[in-house]
């Protein structure tokens, strides 16, 4: 699996640790958002990671900033991105199982590196369930296209699920 990675200056230490750990596990890493030790703005780091996932150049993306909020907001502006800000392993798993999150956003200021590594592991090992969740994601796609999800032809099957 190819993973695009990026962080702002507040997430730099965490992203280096994650990158090293994932490379040791055999993941291919694309470092696309890197401040090179200086202060930088999270949108500048989120955009190339999100675009690489949206284009299919990377299977998934991981972004880290101080709170994770800015990265999540910026990444979700890219069409086709479902970026999830998570704080624990359970929300990481749910973001994959139910929402098919393709970008993981993490808060370096709120979590230690060991916790972040466990969250990343949970997120990477969890698959999307599909079913009723696929219908709901079709509605998210309708919103991306400027459509009302409740009246869109997307996601109208099996409302009782």
Q: Topology, please?
A:
Layout: E1 2-7, H1 12-24, E2 28-33, H2 42-54, E3 60-65, H3 69-75, E4 83-85, H4 89-97, E5 103-107, H5 113-125, H6 132-144
Parallel strand pairs: 1-2, 1-3, 3-5, 4-5
Helix pairs in contact: 1-5, 2-3, 4-5
Written account of the structure:
With 161 residues, this protein is an alpha/beta fold. It folds into 2 domains: 2-129, Ribose 5-phosphate Isomerase B, Chain: A (3-Layer(aba) Sandwich); 130-161, no CATH class. Helices cover 42% and strands 16% of the residues. The chain has helices spanning 12-24, 42-54, 69-75, 89-97, 113-125, 132-144, and strands at 2-7, 28-33, 60-65, 83-85, 103-107. The protein has a 5-stranded parallel β-sheet, with helices on both faces. Helix 1 links the parallel strand 1 (2-7) and strand 2. Helix 4 packs parallel to helix 5 (113-125). The radius of gyration is 16 Å and the shape is globular. The two termini are 31 Å apart. The mean pLDDT is 91.
Mean pLDDT: 91
SS class: alpha/beta
Regarding quaternary structure, what we see is single chain
Major sheet summary line? 5 strands, parallel
The overall strand count is 5
> What is the helix tally?
6
Q: Helix amount, in percent?
A: 40-55%
Q: Please identify the top-level CATH class of the largest domain.
A: Alpha Beta
Shape annotation: globular
Low-confidence stretches: none
Terminal-residue CA separation: 31 Å
Strand content: 15-25%
CATH architecture level-2 label of the largest domain: 3-Layer(aba) Sandwich
What are the salient characteristics of this protein?
161 residues, Ribose 5-phosphate Isomerase B, Chain: A, single chain
């Amino acid at each position: 699996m190819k993973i695009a990675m990026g962080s702002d200056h507040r997430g730099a230490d965490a992203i280096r640790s994650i990158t090293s750990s994932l490379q040791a596990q055999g993941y291919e890493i694309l470092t696309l958002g890197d401040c090179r030790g200086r202060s930088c703005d999270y949108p500048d780091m989120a955009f190339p990671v999100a675009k690489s996932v949206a284009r299919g150049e990377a299977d998934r993306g991981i972004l880290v900033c101080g709170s994770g909020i800015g990265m999540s907001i910026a990444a979700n502006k890219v069409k086709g991105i479902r970026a999830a800000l998570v704080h624990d392993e359970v929300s990481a798993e749910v973001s994959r199982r139910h929402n098919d999150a393709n970008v993981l956003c993490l808060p370096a200021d709120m979590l230690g590196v060991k916790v972040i590594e466990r969250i990343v592991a949970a997120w990477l090992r969890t698959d999307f369930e599909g079913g009723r969740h696929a219908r709901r994601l079709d509605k998210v796609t309708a919103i991306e296209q400027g459509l009302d999800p409740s009246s869109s032809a997307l996601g109208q099957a099996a409302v009782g699920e």
